[in-house]
Each structure stands twice: as structure tokens, then as C-alpha cells.
């Protein structure tokens, strides 16, 4: 048996909101978001897109992108702040 916890006790949330009149975040490419999550120490495992949002299931994290904001959630020690 190990002293390591079964799940990570860390949860981080980073939400960025754009000012009114800014270009839509949905115009940014998947490659751009791949690089963002790579800086957070994660990688994209699955993508889903609608006309209203894009979601990315990441290794130990989730990224959701709307036209005016994005949210990066992680339940690990991944470097959320380093992503941006």
C-alpha cells in the first residue's frame, strides 16, 4: 500500500473573459488551444465543437471555449497559470 492519495486533492480554475467588442475566441485554431494546454502540462485527448462553444477533454483537465471567455479546469498539479 502506498501513502499517495487515490485522487488529487488539487483543483484549479482559470477563467478568462474578453472585453466587449473583442474578436471571438472561437476564431482561434485548435492548434492555438493545443499550445495553450501544452503550456499547462496537459494534452488534448478529445475535442467537441458546436456553433456556440468548443470543449477539450485533456489529460487531468478540461478546457471550454466560448466566443467571449474560456475556462481551464484541472484536478491535478498541472500548471494552469502557466498556460496563459
Task: Explain what this protein looks like in three dimensions.
This protein has 84 residues and is of the alpha+beta class. It has one domain (12-83): 2-Layer Sandwich (Dihydrodipicolinate Reductase, domain 2), CATH 3.30.360. The chain is built from two helices and five strands, in the order E-H-E-E-E-E-H. The chain has a five-stranded antiparallel sheet, covered by helices on one side. The longest helix is centred in the middle third of the chain and has 10 residues, at 30-39. The termini are far apart. The mean pLDDT is 83.
Topology:
Layout: E1 12-17, H1 30-39, E2 44-49, E3 53-58, E4 61-66, E5 69-74, H2 80-83
Antiparallel strand pairs: 1-5, 2-3, 3-4, 4-5
- Global structural class: alpha+beta
Radius of gyration from the CA trace?
14 Å
**What average pLDDT do the residues reach?**
83
What share of the residues lie within helices?
10-25%
Number of DSSP-assigned strands: 5
Q: What do we call the CATH topology?
A: Dihydrodipicolinate Reductase, domain 2
CATH class: Alpha Beta
Could you say which overall geometry the principal axes of the C-alpha atoms support? globular
Low-confidence segments: none
Q: End-to-end span in angstroms?
A: 38 Å
CATH hierarchy: architecture: 2-Layer Sandwich
Strand content: 35-45%
Number of helical elements: 2
Could you state the order of secondary-structure elements as H and E?
EHEEEEH
Instruction: Count the domains.
Output: 1
Amino acid at each position: 500500500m502506498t501513502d499517495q492519495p487515490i485522487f488529487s486533492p488539487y483543483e484549479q480554475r482559470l477563467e478568462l473573459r474578453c472585453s466587449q467588442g473583442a474578436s471571438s475566441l472561437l476564431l482561434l485554431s485548435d492548434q492555438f488551444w493545443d499550445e495553450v494546454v501544452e503550456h499547462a502540462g496537459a494534452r488534448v485527448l478529445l475535442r467537441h465543437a458546436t456553433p456556440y462553444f468548443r470543449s477539450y477533454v485533456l489529460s487531468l483537465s478540461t478546457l471550454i471555449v466560448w466566443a467571449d471567455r474560456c475556462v481551464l479546469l484541472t484536478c491535478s498539479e498541472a500548471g494552469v497559470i502557466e498556460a496563459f
